[in-house]
Amino acid sequence: MELTLFYSSKKADANISGRDTLTNEAIISSISEDGFHRTPNEIEDENVVLQEYLGANLSYEKRNFSIGVTGVHNRIDAEFQPRISPYNQFSQLDNQNTNVGADFSYLFKNVNVFGEVSKSLDGGIGHTVGALIVLDKRLSLAIQNRRFERNFIPIQSNAIGESSTNTNENGTFIGLEAKPSKTITISAFADRFSFDWLRFQTDAPSTGHRLLAQLDYKPSKKIAAYFRYRKRSRGRNDNSISDEGLTSLSQEGLSNYRINFAYQVTKEIQLKSRVEFTRYNIGNGQNEDGLLLYQDIRFKKLSFPLSLTLRYALFSTDSYNSRIYAYENDVLYAFSIPAFNGRGTRFYITTKYRIRRGVDLWLRFAQTYYSDRTSIGTGRDEITGNTRSEIKAQLRLKF
Fold this sequence. Notes:
mainly beta; 1 helix; 1% helix; single chain
Protein backbone atom coordinates (compact mmCIF):
# COMPACT_ATOMS: atom_id res chain seq x y z
CA MET A 1 0.00 0.00 0.00
CA GLU A 2 1.33 3.42 -0.92
CA LEU A 3 0.16 6.95 -0.12
CA THR A 4 1.27 9.92 -2.21
CA LEU A 5 0.55 13.53 -1.24
CA PHE A 6 1.19 16.46 -3.54
CA TYR A 7 0.90 20.23 -3.33
CA SER A 8 1.80 22.99 -5.77
CA SER A 9 1.65 26.76 -5.36
CA LYS A 10 2.79 29.12 -8.08
CA LYS A 11 2.12 32.48 -9.61
CA ALA A 12 0.43 32.22 -13.00
CA ASP A 13 -0.26 34.52 -15.93
CA ALA A 14 -3.94 35.34 -16.51
CA ASN A 15 -5.99 37.55 -18.79
CA ILE A 16 -7.41 40.32 -16.60
CA SER A 17 -10.85 41.57 -17.64
CA GLY A 18 -11.38 43.90 -14.66
CA ARG A 19 -11.20 44.31 -10.88
CA ASP A 20 -13.74 44.14 -8.09
CA THR A 21 -14.72 47.70 -7.13
CA LEU A 22 -14.87 46.86 -3.42
CA THR A 23 -11.98 44.44 -2.83
CA ASN A 24 -9.82 45.33 -5.86
CA GLU A 25 -9.57 41.58 -6.49
CA ALA A 26 -8.62 40.73 -10.05
CA ILE A 27 -11.32 39.39 -12.35
CA ILE A 28 -9.82 37.04 -14.94
CA SER A 29 -11.28 35.45 -18.06
CA SER A 30 -8.66 32.72 -18.59
CA ILE A 31 -5.26 31.38 -17.53
CA SER A 32 -2.48 32.20 -20.00
CA GLU A 33 0.07 29.45 -20.70
CA ASP A 34 2.09 30.84 -23.63
CA GLY A 35 4.72 32.44 -21.37
CA PHE A 36 5.01 35.61 -23.46
CA HIS A 37 5.61 38.99 -21.77
CA ARG A 38 6.29 41.22 -24.78
CA THR A 39 3.52 43.81 -24.94
CA PRO A 40 2.03 46.12 -22.27
CA ASN A 41 -1.05 43.87 -21.99
CA GLU A 42 1.07 40.71 -21.66
CA ILE A 43 3.26 42.37 -19.03
CA GLU A 44 0.15 43.41 -17.11
CA ASP A 45 -1.04 39.78 -17.09
CA GLU A 46 2.23 38.40 -15.71
CA ASN A 47 1.99 36.53 -12.37
CA VAL A 48 -1.32 38.15 -11.41
CA VAL A 49 -2.92 35.10 -9.75
CA LEU A 50 -1.86 32.43 -7.30
CA GLN A 51 -2.66 28.93 -8.57
CA GLU A 52 -2.70 26.06 -6.05
CA TYR A 53 -3.10 22.31 -6.42
CA LEU A 54 -3.58 19.91 -3.51
CA GLY A 55 -4.25 16.19 -3.72
CA ALA A 56 -3.53 12.64 -2.69
CA ASN A 57 -3.40 9.15 -4.17
CA LEU A 58 -3.83 5.95 -2.15
CA SER A 59 -2.95 2.77 -4.03
CA TYR A 60 -2.88 -0.94 -3.25
CA GLU A 61 -0.84 -3.37 -5.34
CA LYS A 62 -0.46 -7.13 -5.07
CA ARG A 63 1.13 -9.30 -7.73
CA ASN A 64 -0.86 -8.73 -10.91
CA PHE A 65 -3.55 -6.44 -9.50
CA SER A 66 -3.60 -2.82 -8.42
CA ILE A 67 -6.31 -0.37 -7.39
CA GLY A 68 -6.16 3.25 -6.31
CA VAL A 69 -8.20 6.30 -5.33
CA THR A 70 -7.27 9.89 -6.08
CA GLY A 71 -8.52 13.31 -5.07
CA VAL A 72 -7.34 16.68 -6.38
CA HIS A 73 -8.40 20.24 -5.57
CA ASN A 74 -7.30 23.40 -7.34
CA ARG A 75 -7.85 27.03 -6.37
CA ILE A 76 -7.20 30.42 -7.95
CA ASP A 77 -7.08 33.55 -5.77
CA ALA A 78 -9.07 35.65 -8.23
CA GLU A 79 -12.61 35.99 -9.46
CA PHE A 80 -12.82 33.59 -12.41
CA GLN A 81 -15.33 34.80 -14.99
CA PRO A 82 -14.55 32.90 -18.22
CA ARG A 83 -16.03 33.89 -21.54
CA ILE A 84 -19.02 31.60 -21.75
CA SER A 85 -20.03 30.27 -25.15
CA PRO A 86 -22.78 27.74 -25.88
CA TYR A 87 -20.19 25.01 -26.56
CA ASN A 88 -18.28 25.39 -23.26
CA GLN A 89 -20.99 26.50 -20.84
CA PHE A 90 -21.01 23.18 -18.94
CA SER A 91 -17.29 22.46 -18.53
CA GLN A 92 -15.66 25.73 -17.48
CA LEU A 93 -13.32 25.82 -14.48
CA ASP A 94 -14.35 27.84 -11.45
CA ASN A 95 -12.35 29.61 -8.73
CA GLN A 96 -12.21 26.26 -6.93
CA ASN A 97 -12.64 22.77 -8.38
CA THR A 98 -12.45 19.28 -6.90
CA ASN A 99 -12.31 15.90 -8.61
CA VAL A 100 -12.24 12.44 -7.02
CA GLY A 101 -11.67 9.17 -8.81
CA ALA A 102 -10.52 5.55 -8.78
CA ASP A 103 -8.35 3.45 -11.07
CA PHE A 104 -7.46 -0.23 -11.47
CA SER A 105 -5.20 -2.53 -13.46
CA TYR A 106 -5.40 -6.33 -13.69
CA LEU A 107 -2.97 -8.61 -15.52
CA PHE A 108 -4.09 -12.15 -16.35
CA LYS A 109 -1.71 -14.16 -18.51
CA ASN A 110 -1.49 -12.22 -21.80
CA VAL A 111 -4.30 -9.74 -21.04
CA ASN A 112 -3.96 -6.45 -19.18
CA VAL A 113 -7.28 -4.77 -18.29
CA PHE A 114 -7.23 -1.22 -16.92
CA GLY A 115 -9.56 1.67 -16.26
CA GLU A 116 -10.26 4.88 -14.42
CA VAL A 117 -13.33 6.87 -13.40
CA SER A 118 -13.43 10.45 -12.14
CA LYS A 119 -16.20 12.66 -10.76
CA SER A 120 -16.21 16.45 -10.67
CA LEU A 121 -17.94 17.46 -7.43
CA ASP A 122 -19.57 20.38 -9.24
CA GLY A 123 -20.06 18.55 -12.53
CA GLY A 124 -20.22 15.25 -14.35
CA ILE A 125 -18.30 12.01 -14.71
CA GLY A 126 -15.49 10.91 -16.97
CA HIS A 127 -14.30 7.34 -17.38
CA THR A 128 -12.06 5.21 -19.56
CA VAL A 129 -11.58 1.43 -19.65
CA GLY A 130 -9.42 -0.69 -21.93
CA ALA A 131 -7.37 -3.80 -22.50
CA LEU A 132 -3.99 -4.71 -23.98
CA ILE A 133 -3.97 -8.24 -25.40
CA VAL A 134 -1.02 -10.22 -26.73
CA LEU A 135 -2.72 -12.66 -29.11
CA ASP A 136 0.58 -14.05 -30.38
CA LYS A 137 4.23 -13.13 -30.14
CA ARG A 138 3.74 -11.43 -33.51
CA LEU A 139 0.30 -9.87 -32.93
CA SER A 140 -0.94 -7.47 -30.24
CA LEU A 141 -4.31 -5.80 -29.82
CA ALA A 142 -5.45 -2.72 -27.88
CA ILE A 143 -9.03 -1.69 -27.08
CA GLN A 144 -10.16 1.42 -25.23
CA ASN A 145 -13.56 2.94 -24.54
CA ARG A 146 -14.10 6.40 -23.08
CA ARG A 147 -16.93 8.65 -22.04
CA PHE A 148 -16.53 12.19 -20.76
CA GLU A 149 -19.81 13.90 -19.94
CA ARG A 150 -20.36 17.44 -21.20
CA ASN A 151 -20.28 18.81 -17.64
CA PHE A 152 -17.18 16.88 -16.56
CA ILE A 153 -14.54 19.41 -15.48
CA PRO A 154 -11.06 17.96 -16.06
CA ILE A 155 -8.20 19.11 -13.82
CA GLN A 156 -4.86 18.47 -15.54
CA SER A 157 -6.23 15.27 -17.11
CA ASN A 158 -4.63 13.74 -20.19
CA ALA A 159 -6.63 10.72 -21.29
CA ILE A 160 -6.70 9.52 -24.91
CA GLY A 161 -9.32 11.46 -26.84
CA GLU A 162 -10.08 13.47 -29.94
CA SER A 163 -10.46 16.77 -28.08
CA SER A 164 -7.65 18.63 -26.36
CA THR A 165 -9.68 18.56 -23.12
CA ASN A 166 -11.36 15.45 -21.72
CA THR A 167 -14.96 16.65 -21.82
CA ASN A 168 -18.06 16.13 -23.98
CA GLU A 169 -16.80 13.03 -25.79
CA ASN A 170 -17.61 9.35 -26.29
CA GLY A 171 -15.30 7.07 -28.21
CA THR A 172 -13.95 3.61 -28.90
CA PHE A 173 -10.38 2.95 -29.98
CA ILE A 174 -9.10 -0.30 -31.49
CA GLY A 175 -5.46 -0.77 -32.48
CA LEU A 176 -3.19 -3.60 -33.48
CA GLU A 177 0.46 -4.32 -34.19
CA ALA A 178 1.60 -7.26 -36.31
CA LYS A 179 5.11 -8.47 -37.10
CA PRO A 180 4.81 -10.90 -40.04
CA SER A 181 8.61 -11.03 -40.36
CA LYS A 182 11.77 -9.75 -38.72
CA THR A 183 11.98 -6.84 -41.15
CA ILE A 184 8.31 -5.79 -41.39
CA THR A 185 5.97 -4.31 -38.77
CA ILE A 186 2.37 -3.33 -39.47
CA SER A 187 0.54 -0.94 -37.13
CA ALA A 188 -3.04 0.28 -37.45
CA PHE A 189 -5.84 1.79 -35.41
CA ALA A 190 -9.41 2.99 -35.79
CA ASP A 191 -11.04 5.48 -33.44
CA ARG A 192 -14.75 6.23 -33.58
CA PHE A 193 -15.98 9.22 -31.54
CA SER A 194 -19.07 11.32 -30.96
CA PHE A 195 -19.89 14.57 -29.17
CA ASP A 196 -23.29 14.86 -27.45
CA TRP A 197 -23.01 18.63 -27.17
CA LEU A 198 -21.64 21.52 -29.22
CA ARG A 199 -17.91 22.02 -29.77
CA PHE A 200 -15.73 24.92 -30.87
CA GLN A 201 -16.69 25.70 -34.49
CA THR A 202 -19.26 22.89 -34.38
CA ASP A 203 -22.71 24.21 -33.48
CA ALA A 204 -24.49 20.86 -33.10
CA PRO A 205 -23.83 17.34 -31.77
CA SER A 206 -21.52 15.53 -34.17
CA THR A 207 -19.64 12.32 -34.90
CA GLY A 208 -16.35 11.40 -36.54
CA HIS A 209 -13.58 8.86 -36.90
CA ARG A 210 -9.82 8.64 -37.20
CA LEU A 211 -7.85 5.93 -39.04
CA LEU A 212 -4.14 5.18 -39.28
CA ALA A 213 -2.10 2.45 -40.97
CA GLN A 214 1.69 2.23 -41.04
CA LEU A 215 4.11 -0.21 -42.63
CA ASP A 216 7.65 -0.25 -41.21
CA TYR A 217 10.49 -1.88 -43.11
CA LYS A 218 13.92 -2.37 -41.53
CA PRO A 219 16.07 -4.76 -43.58
CA SER A 220 19.25 -3.94 -41.65
CA LYS A 221 20.60 -1.81 -38.82
CA LYS A 222 21.56 0.87 -41.34
CA ILE A 223 18.30 1.22 -43.24
CA ALA A 224 14.81 1.97 -41.93
CA ALA A 225 11.76 3.14 -43.85
CA TYR A 226 8.04 3.45 -43.29
CA PHE A 227 4.87 4.42 -45.14
CA ARG A 228 1.99 5.96 -43.20
CA TYR A 229 -1.60 6.69 -44.15
CA ARG A 230 -3.79 8.71 -41.82
CA LYS A 231 -7.36 9.95 -42.18
CA ARG A 232 -9.63 12.03 -39.97
CA SER A 233 -13.30 12.88 -40.52
CA ARG A 234 -15.46 14.91 -38.15
CA GLY A 235 -18.40 17.31 -38.15
CA ARG A 236 -17.74 21.03 -38.44
CA ASN A 237 -19.56 24.25 -39.29
CA ASP A 238 -19.78 24.76 -43.05
CA ASN A 239 -20.05 28.49 -43.70
CA SER A 240 -20.93 27.83 -47.33
CA ILE A 241 -24.23 26.28 -46.21
CA SER A 242 -26.54 28.50 -44.17
CA ASP A 243 -30.25 29.03 -43.84
CA GLU A 244 -31.56 32.29 -42.36
CA GLY A 245 -28.36 32.80 -40.38
CA LEU A 246 -28.13 29.21 -39.13
CA THR A 247 -24.92 27.40 -40.04
CA SER A 248 -25.14 23.76 -41.12
CA LEU A 249 -22.64 21.01 -40.34
CA SER A 250 -20.61 19.12 -42.93
CA GLN A 251 -18.01 16.40 -42.61
CA GLU A 252 -14.51 17.82 -42.52
CA GLY A 253 -11.95 15.41 -43.98
CA LEU A 254 -8.18 15.37 -43.76
CA SER A 255 -6.02 12.68 -45.37
CA ASN A 256 -2.27 12.38 -44.96
CA TYR A 257 0.33 10.25 -46.79
CA ARG A 258 3.95 10.00 -45.66
CA ILE A 259 7.07 8.18 -46.85
CA ASN A 260 10.05 8.35 -44.49
CA PHE A 261 13.52 6.93 -45.15
CA ALA A 262 16.56 6.82 -42.86
CA TYR A 263 20.05 5.61 -43.79
CA GLN A 264 23.02 5.28 -41.44
CA VAL A 265 25.88 6.10 -43.80
CA THR A 266 28.57 5.62 -41.14
CA LYS A 267 28.58 5.40 -37.36
CA GLU A 268 28.76 9.18 -37.27
CA ILE A 269 26.55 10.28 -40.20
CA GLN A 270 22.85 9.61 -40.71
CA LEU A 271 20.58 10.77 -43.55
CA LYS A 272 16.80 11.14 -43.26
CA SER A 273 14.40 11.94 -46.08
CA ARG A 274 10.65 12.53 -46.06
CA VAL A 275 7.88 13.19 -48.55
CA GLU A 276 4.47 14.07 -47.15
CA PHE A 277 1.20 14.91 -48.87
CA THR A 278 -2.05 16.07 -47.27
CA ARG A 279 -5.54 16.72 -48.64
CA TYR A 280 -8.29 18.68 -46.89
CA ASN A 281 -11.94 19.19 -47.78
CA ILE A 282 -15.23 20.04 -46.12
CA GLY A 283 -18.62 19.09 -47.47
CA ASN A 284 -18.79 19.51 -51.24
CA GLY A 285 -16.01 22.11 -51.29
CA GLN A 286 -12.85 21.92 -53.37
CA ASN A 287 -9.86 19.89 -52.22
CA GLU A 288 -7.00 21.81 -50.61
CA ASP A 289 -3.63 20.06 -50.96
CA GLY A 290 -0.28 20.35 -49.25
CA LEU A 291 3.18 18.93 -49.98
CA LEU A 292 6.36 18.80 -47.89
CA LEU A 293 9.80 17.43 -48.78
CA TYR A 294 12.85 17.59 -46.56
CA GLN A 295 16.34 16.21 -46.18
CA ASP A 296 18.13 15.80 -42.83
CA ILE A 297 21.83 15.31 -42.18
CA ARG A 298 22.95 14.33 -38.70
CA PHE A 299 26.51 14.09 -37.43
CA LYS A 300 27.39 12.66 -34.02
CA LYS A 301 30.66 11.15 -32.87
CA LEU A 302 31.21 10.13 -29.26
CA SER A 303 34.90 11.04 -29.26
CA PHE A 304 34.28 14.41 -30.95
CA PRO A 305 32.94 17.40 -28.96
CA LEU A 306 30.69 18.72 -31.76
CA SER A 307 27.42 17.20 -33.02
CA LEU A 308 24.91 18.76 -35.38
CA THR A 309 21.60 18.26 -37.20
CA LEU A 310 20.81 20.08 -40.43
CA ARG A 311 17.58 20.21 -42.46
CA TYR A 312 16.48 21.73 -45.75
CA ALA A 313 12.76 21.61 -46.55
CA LEU A 314 10.47 22.60 -49.43
CA PHE A 315 6.74 23.10 -48.83
CA SER A 316 3.68 24.13 -50.81
CA THR A 317 0.11 24.15 -49.46
CA ASP A 318 -3.11 25.60 -50.82
CA SER A 319 -4.24 26.91 -47.44
CA TYR A 320 -3.74 26.74 -43.69
CA ASN A 321 -6.26 23.88 -43.60
CA SER A 322 -3.83 21.70 -45.58
CA ARG A 323 -0.83 22.62 -43.40
CA ILE A 324 1.76 19.97 -42.57
CA TYR A 325 3.53 19.55 -39.22
CA ALA A 326 7.10 18.29 -38.90
CA TYR A 327 9.16 17.73 -35.76
CA GLU A 328 12.50 19.54 -35.59
CA ASN A 329 15.55 19.03 -33.36
CA ASP A 330 15.99 21.83 -30.86
CA VAL A 331 18.13 22.86 -27.91
CA LEU A 332 17.95 20.71 -24.79
CA TYR A 333 14.55 20.66 -23.01
CA ALA A 334 12.86 22.52 -25.89
CA PHE A 335 10.92 21.22 -28.86
CA SER A 336 9.75 22.61 -32.17
CA ILE A 337 6.90 21.30 -34.35
CA PRO A 338 6.17 24.10 -36.84
CA ALA A 339 3.17 24.08 -39.17
CA PHE A 340 4.13 24.56 -42.81
CA ASN A 341 1.61 26.47 -44.90
CA GLY A 342 1.91 28.61 -48.01
CA ARG A 343 4.90 28.20 -50.32
CA GLY A 344 8.55 28.43 -49.47
CA THR A 345 11.61 26.79 -48.00
CA ARG A 346 12.96 26.22 -44.50
CA PHE A 347 16.47 25.62 -43.24
CA TYR A 348 17.72 24.97 -39.74
CA ILE A 349 20.89 23.78 -38.04
CA THR A 350 21.18 22.71 -34.40
CA THR A 351 24.61 22.14 -32.88
CA LYS A 352 25.85 20.91 -29.52
CA TYR A 353 29.42 21.60 -28.44
CA ARG A 354 30.96 19.98 -25.38
CA ILE A 355 33.28 22.69 -24.09
CA ARG A 356 34.56 20.54 -21.26
CA ARG A 357 33.25 17.89 -18.93
CA GLY A 358 30.01 19.22 -17.41
CA VAL A 359 29.81 22.25 -19.75
CA ASP A 360 27.70 22.00 -22.93
CA LEU A 361 26.65 24.69 -25.40
CA TRP A 362 23.68 24.46 -27.81
CA LEU A 363 23.21 26.82 -30.75
CA ARG A 364 20.28 26.79 -33.18
CA PHE A 365 19.59 28.87 -36.28
CA ALA A 366 16.44 28.49 -38.38
CA GLN A 367 15.17 30.47 -41.34
CA THR A 368 11.91 30.27 -43.31
CA TYR A 369 11.53 31.89 -46.73
CA TYR A 370 8.06 32.43 -48.22
CA SER A 371 7.64 32.96 -51.95
CA ASP A 372 3.91 33.79 -51.75
CA ARG A 373 3.86 36.82 -49.41
CA THR A 374 5.56 40.11 -48.64
CA SER A 375 4.94 40.14 -44.87
CA ILE A 376 4.72 37.51 -42.13
CA GLY A 377 2.39 37.56 -39.14
CA THR A 378 0.01 40.28 -37.96
CA GLY A 379 -0.13 43.01 -35.36
CA ARG A 380 2.91 43.33 -33.12
CA ASP A 381 4.24 40.03 -34.48
CA GLU A 382 4.28 41.25 -38.07
CA ILE A 383 7.56 41.01 -39.98
CA THR A 384 8.04 43.18 -43.05
CA GLY A 385 9.46 40.96 -45.76
CA ASN A 386 9.18 37.29 -46.65
CA THR A 387 11.94 35.83 -44.45
CA ARG A 388 11.79 34.90 -40.77
CA SER A 389 14.90 33.93 -38.81
CA GLU A 390 15.22 32.40 -35.34
CA ILE A 391 18.29 32.10 -33.12
CA LYS A 392 18.62 30.13 -29.88
CA ALA A 393 21.54 29.63 -27.53
CA GLN A 394 21.71 27.51 -24.39
CA LEU A 395 24.51 26.80 -21.94
CA ARG A 396 24.30 23.90 -19.47
CA LEU A 397 26.52 23.45 -16.43
CA LYS A 398 26.51 20.06 -14.67
CA PHE A 399 27.84 19.85 -11.12
